[in-house]
Amino acid sequence: MPDKRDFYEVLGIDKSASDDEIKKAYRKMAKKYHPDLHPGDAAAEASFKEVNEAYEVLSNPDKKAKYDQFGHAGVDPNFGAGGGGFGGGFGGFGDFDLGDIFGSFFGGGGGAAQRNAPRRGETLEVMVNLSFEEAAFGCKKEINISRVERCPDCEGSGAAKGTKPETCSVCHGTGQVKRTQRTPLGMFQSTAPCDACHGRGKVIKTPCSSCKGGGYIRRSRHITVNIPAGIDDGQTVSLRGEGSHGQNGGPAGDLHVTVRLRPHPIFERDGFDVHCDVPVTFVQAALGAEIEIPTLEGKEKYTIPAGTQYGTAFRLRGKGISYINGRGKGDQIIHVIIETPTNLSDAQKKILESFAESTGDQNYTRNRNFFDKMRNLFK
What's the longest Cα–Cα distance across the chain? Predict the structure, then answer.
C-alpha cells in the first residue's frame, strides 16, 4: 500500500512514543489541519483525515501491535479479502478451519459438529468525531455501520424458501471423509473435509437467491448512540449485540464506538478540568478589573484583583466537565495573559516613561529579587 504514509510519520512521533505522547501529537496535528481552521482547503482536509486514521490505529493497543508487525496490511480490513474468504463461503465465514488441519493428520477433528456449533458474531469498531461541547454535555449521534446479518428470506439456512439443507450423501453428515495412502512405511490413513459439502455435513441443492446460499448478507444500518456527558478523547462506548449476527444460534457481536474530539478554539481539556487563556491589558492587571470570560455554559463576569501577574491562574469551582456516569464536575482554570501594548504614540511613550520614573523598582518585587540574586551570583 505505497500510497499511505507511515502512521508514526503522520503524527511526527517515534515508535517508542508513550500513549500520552501519541495523544498530544494527535491533538497538535488535528488542530493544525482542522477543517474549521482551513475552510475549503482540500489538502488540509485530507491531512486531517490522515491524522485521524493514524491516531485511530496507534491509540488502540491491539491495532498498534498489528501495525507494528505487519504495517498497513495488518490494520486494513480489505487486505486479503477477496471472493469468499478462505475456501469460499460468505466473507469472513469461509470453509477454512484449523480443526480440519489437525483432523487430517490425526484422524479426528470436529467435523460437521464443530462447523455447525454456535459462533459469536464479529465485534465491530467505528469512530465518531465530537465537538468539545458534545463531549462535555453528552449527545446522541447517528452512525452508519456495515454488519453481517442473517438472511431474512432463508433465516440463515442458505436454502431457498420451501426447501432445506440436505444431509451430504458423500460423508453422510459427518463433514469428513477418510483417505488411505500407500507410503514406503506402509498404509497411511488420514481424515479430510468432505469436498462435496465443504465439511459442513449438509448440502444446499436450491440456494436462496438473496444470499446465494451463504445464509448471511451484509447490510448497512443506522445506529443511534447515546454519548454520555464527560466522555474524553479515545474513550469507547460499547453497544451490546449491535455487531454482526452470530452463526448457528450464536450471539451477536458488540459495537464499539470510539470518540475523537475536535480541538476547541478557546478551551483545553485536562481530565475533567477546562483550561482557558484570557488576555488582559497592563492597566487591568495593575489596577484590577471586572472582565468577561467564556465558560462552557456561556459568558460570565469575573473580577481580577489589582496587581495580578502574568500567568496567574484563577479556579472556578464546578465550571468544568461532568464526571462521566457520576455526580459533580471538574473546574475551569483561567490563566491570565497580560498583553503588552504595541504601536505606541510619542505621547503615550512619554506617559509610560514618566510612570516608570515615578515608580522606580519599588513596585516590581519579582524584578528586584531576580536582579539581586543575579548580582550575588556573579560577584
Answer: 112
Q: Which helix (H) or strand (E) element contains residue 223?
A: strand 216-227
- Which residues are CB-contacts of 45 (< 8 A; sequence separation ≥ 6)? 33, 35, 38
Asked if 227 and 139 count as a contact pair (C-beta separation under 8 A), the reply is yes
Helix, strand, coil percentages (3-state) for the chain, rounded to 5, are 25, 30, 45
The predicted-structure confidence for 329-360, as pLDDT tens digits, reads as follows 999 999 999 999 899 999 999 998 898 888 77
C-alpha cell at 185: 512405511
The CATH number covering residue 40 comes to 1.10.287.110
Domain count, the chain: 4
- H-state helical runs in the chain: 7-11, 19-33, 42-58, 61-70, 98-106, 111-115, 132-137, 282-287, 346-359, 365-377
Q: Which amino acid is it at 303?
A: T
The set of residues, in sequence order, having a beta carbon less than 8 Å from that of 22 and lying 6+ positions away, is 11, 13, 55, 58, 59
C-alpha to C-alpha distance for 31 and 264, rounded to whole angstroms:
8
In a domain, 9, yes or no: yes
Beta strand 273-281 with 332-339 is: parallel
**Partners of 372 in the β-ladder:** none
Domain boundary residue, one of 236, 263, 290? 263
Q: Tell me which residue range forms the domain holding 356.
A: 348-379
Main-chain dihedrals φ then ψ at residue 128, nearest 5 degrees: -130, 135
CB 57 within 8 A of CB 65: no
Is the same domain home to 39 and 12?
A: yes
CB neighbours of 368 closer than 8 A, spacing ≥ 6? 361, 362
Instruction: Give 231-287 pLDDT, tens digit per residue.
Output: 999 899 999 999 999 988 889 999 999 999 999 999 999 999 999 999 999 899 999
Run of H or E residues at 70: helix 61-70
Distance between CA atoms of residues 22 and 233, nearest Å: 12
Contact status, residue 221 vs residue 144, Cβ threshold 8 Å: yes
The residues, ordered by sequence, that sit 6+ positions from 157 with a Cβ below 8 Å of its Cβ are 164, 165, 204, 208, 215
| CA separation for the pair 152, 209 (Å, rounded) | 11
Mark whether 254 and 125 lie in a shared domain.
yes
Residues 6+ away with beta carbon under 8 Å from 174: 111, 112, 194, 201
Question: Is residue 8 domain-shared with residue 138, that is, in the same domain?
Answer: no
pTM: 0.62
